[in-house]
Amino acid sequence: MGEAVLKNCRFCESGKIRRVFKREDIYIFRCLDCGTVFLGNDLNEEAIKALYEYYGHSTYSDEISPITKLRYEEILDDFEKYRKNNRIIDIGCGAGDFMLSAANRGWQADGTEIAEEAIKLAASKGLEVIEGDAAFLELDKDRYDIATLSGVMEHVSDPEAIVSKIEHIVRPGGIIYITTPNYNDITRIILGKRWGVFHKEHLFYFTAGNLASLLKKHNFKIKKARTESLMLREILRIFKKGRPLDDAGICQRQEEARGLIEKSVVFSALKGVINFILNIFRVGGTIYIMAEKV
User: Fold this and answer.
1) The pTM is what?
2) Over 80: is that where the pLDDT of 59 sits?
3) For 95-141, where are the E strands, in sequence order?
4) Of 161, 184, 180, 193, nearest to 40 (Cα)?
């Protein structure tokens, strides 16, 4: 017997929902009232937790790349002018690599995480991580200058609750920084239900517009918003047409491409042009939003 399927929108609980597609055991729906696109599988807490058992055994256990470290430094550069309480919290911090970068620059860095293996890895680096869903943790009001959610919003069970919690814990004038896959990604438009971002860990699929609306509802003013980047895996999926992908090989090639772009003025300029076009039409693979609490 298959999993139960939701009868109401995950976000607004409206009963006016329409199935976008079914792929194997994954159901994707759109709400006709609020427009939210969401996973229709009705997963209980135990099933959701089981999805994260591999975290720490693969992604989080790998050595962080020098280019990713450089991106962290660039993000932290943007945060400097908001440093007042000297506190930053990384929601869904994984093994704590971003926390380490922040701590090395003098921030008091906290993190939250639900994946047990990732928490153990963070502890092995000397980091103390708060275990649990941040939306339901007891955290002090106006404590933080910065709250970051990198690749987290698509996983949360209640986006409204998590943004409300961050509104509570970030001081006035502080910042929320979010990255999440873009439902309007050009590769999703081309691939349809073959888009590799559709899977059970992702409960919600955002656009730049509806994510910005959610933040504004909770007293955040958008400072920067862009959609950029294309994933090599999804580009290859367009041409493979159902044939299996070599994930390990793709990750290696993607990292090699990042290194080449970093070292080459020509390729770096080309990347800038591509990202400019992707952002103009809001079809980049990833949404990046930084917003200030007012």
Assistant:
1) 0.93
2) no
3) 108-113, 130-131
4) 193
- Coil, helix or strand at residue 240: helix
Q: Do strands 87-91 and 108-113 pair parallel, antiparallel, or not at all (unpaired)?
A: parallel
Cα gap 132→17, rounded to integer Å: 30
What the block records as the tokens of 81 is 């002018």
Q: Residue 109 and residue 91: Cα distance in Å, rounded?
A: 11
Q: Are 83 and 145 in contact (CB under 8 A)?
A: yes
Q: What's the CATH fold of domain 44-293?
A: Rossmann fold (3.40.50)
Q: Which of 79, 87, 67 is nearest to 224 (CA)?
A: 79
Dist. CA 74–CA 72, nearest whole Å: 5
Q: Read off the pLDDT of residues 100-136 as tens digits, 9 standing for 90 and up.
A: 999 999 999 999 999 888 999 999 999 989 999 999 9
The residue behind tokens 């709250």 is: 147
Strand, coil or helix: what is 65?
coil
Q: Quote the DSSP letter at residue 4.
A: P
What are the E-state strand segments in 133-245? 144-150, 170-181, 204-205, 220-228
Domain boundaries, the chain: 1-42, 44-293
Query: 3-class DSSP state for residue 115?
Result: coil
